[in-house]
UniProtKB/TrEMBL annotation:
It is a multi-pass membrane protein. The lineage of its organism: Bacteria, Bacillati, Bacillota, Bacilli, Bacillales. It is found in: Cell membrane. The chain crosses the membrane at residues 7-28, 34-51, 71-97, 103-124, 136-162, 191-211, 232-251, 257-275, 309-332, 426-445. It holds the Pfam family Na_H_antiporter. GO terms for cellular component: plasma membrane. Keywords: Antiport, Cell membrane, Membrane, Transmembrane, Transmembrane helix, Transport. This is Na+/H+ antiporter NhaC. One of its GO terms (molecular function) is antiporter activity. Its main location: membrane. Residues 159-442 form the Na+/H+ antiporter NhaC-like C-terminal domain. Belongs to the NhaC Na(+)/H(+) (TC 2.A.35) antiporter family. PANTHER family: MALATE-2H(+)/NA(+)-LACTATE ANTIPORTER, NA(+)_H(+) ANTIPORTER NHAC. It comes from Mangrovibacillus cuniculi.
Length: 462
């Protein structure tokens, strides 16, 4: 990795526009899988690096360093694949699916999805775990009810990322507060300025989406799925054990990797005790295969396994390599420096940090990097303009945490699309919370909110 930027600011901007154009044309017009434009852009940056007299070792170090940043995410994705498969096999997800089918009113389905995933997201502190558990359940229900999958996934994403943003257990929330040196709970309180209005806007919009309740209630698939699940005679005390273990791990502040490992291990041990140990090998690799004989039910419950995550994992590795190479060529530093040189007003500094966090999601595709790099780049500017550091932490999440799932080639976008089976661009228009957070944060940059002085800050919050 090189410390001095290799590319000029102007050339970095040209390269960035070219890369984004490649993504747009390949994904929107040509409808390619995201791997192809990522590989093309990776090759483009590699050639530019060679042209700028960087040797192959330096370029490979950049790629390797980028990939090393997502190793924990890759392990998490593998465990999510195992967790979904084991939860299916032991009956956790089928049981929850049956309960939600029984209690959730079809007329208020979308807003119910938003509210339930929000609560689960806050409890778990992980948007991706929420998507992999409750998200799978709600997509299955939407399929049974014949409701729009893009709208359903939009509600899942809105709720899951509300929870991720507002939970004290969340990695991104902790990262944003620690990066700029503010108290975790002060940071969460500060985020309410944009998060609470965005959440209420989302509730209203999902309530306004019309659902033909008579058509839904007459759907024979609901009766079919409910009857099959009831015939499984699932014991709640047994099938909910993996979920209880996951919640205990979350409350005791275990990492996501440890939590998912122990939860899936609980499910696997339960299967062994039920004399179903012979299915574990295939279950872990290829996922759970439902054999109820009912096509609708089997299509809903056949999920999970490590192999189901390989599309996501392979793409995340490529995107991480692209991010590492972008950093090693100095593209990110040059663009952030160029933006900072052009701002003068306090509101412009806030908006620029928001735009930087937003833009980094599109350039590097990684949630943590969009937060970390923005925080490091703008701390001095916020201090010089006497802007409270809590504002910086807040806009890093408004433009970083909740925007990553809206980018087709980002880590979260890839994961959600693959896990729930809906293309990123299809659910983006219905991810109301994520979009509202960004817009509210942008417009609030012109307003100042006075806060009491504390030992961490004696400046004014905007």
């Amino acid at each position: 990795m090189v410390n001095t930027p290799v590319l000029s600011a102007k050339f970095s901007l040209i390269v960035t526009v070219l890369m984004l154009s490649v993504f747009s044309i390949a994904l929107i017009k040509l409808e390619m899988v995201p791997h192809i434009p990522v590989l093309f852009n990776l090759a483009l940056l590699f050639v530019i690096g060679l042209w700028k007299k960087m040797n192959q070792k330096q370029l490979m170090e950049g790629i390797t360093k980028g990939v090393s940043m997502v190793v924990s995410a890759i392990i998490l994705f593998i465990l999510i694949g195992i967790t979904v498969a084991s939860w299916m096999a032991v009956g956790t997800i089928p049981f929850l699916l049956g309960q939600v089918l029984e209690w959730v009113s079809p007329q208020f389905f979308f807003v119910s999805v938003l509210l339930i995933t929000s609560v689960v997201g806050v409890l778990l502190g992980s948007s991706l775990t929420t998507v992999a558990t409750m998200g799978v359940i709600f997509v299955s229900i939407a399929e049974v009810l014949g409701l729009s999958l893009p709208i359903t996934v939009g509600a899942i994403v809105s709720g899951a990322f509300f929870g991720d943003k507002m939970s004290p257990l969340s990695d991104t929330t902790s990262l944003a507060s620690s990066t700029v040196g503010v108290d975790l709970f002060e940071h969460i309180k500060s985020m309410m300025v944009t998060t609470v209005p965005a959440f209420f806007v989302s509730v209203i919009l999902f309530l306004l989406i019309p659902i033909n309740s008579s058509e839904v209630s007459g759907n024979n698939s609901i009766v079919e799925v409910s009857s099959v699940i009831k015939s499984m005679s699932l014991n709640p005390i047994i099938v909910l054990l993996p979920l209880v273990v996951l919640l205990i791990c979350t409350v005791t502040k275990q990492s996501g990797i440890i939590s998912l490992f122990l939860s899936s291990l609980t499910a696997i041990v339960t299967l062994i005790l039920q004399s179903k140990g012979n299915m574990i090998g295939g279950l872990i690799m290829d996922g759970y295969v439902s054999t109820t004989g009912q096509e609708v039910v089997d299509s809903l419950l056949t999920r999970g396994g490590i192999n189901s995550m390989m599309f996501t994992i392979s793409l995340v590795i490529l995107v991480a390599g692209l991010a590492g190479l972008s950093i090693s060529l100095g593209i990110i530093k040059q663009l952030s420096d160029w933006v900072m040189r052009s701002v003068r007003k306090r509101s412009s500094v806030v908006r620029s940090s928001l735009a930087t966090s937003f833009g980094l999601n599109f350039i590097v595709g990684e949630q943590y990097l969009s937060i970390l790099l923005t925080g490091q780049a703008y701390q001095q500017s916020f201090e010089e303009k006497s802007i409270d550091k809590r504002v910086l932490a807040r806009v890093m999440e408004d433009g970083g945490t909740v925007i990553n799932p809206l980018v087709p080639w980002s880590v979260c976008g890839i994961f959600i699309s693959n896990m729930l089976g809906v293309p990123t661009l299809a659910y983006v228009p219905f991810s109301f919370f994520c979009i509202a957070c960004l817009l509210i944060s942008f417009f609030l940059a012109d307003y100042r909110f006075l806060r009491s002085r504390s030992h961490t800050s004696s400046t004014q919050t905007m």
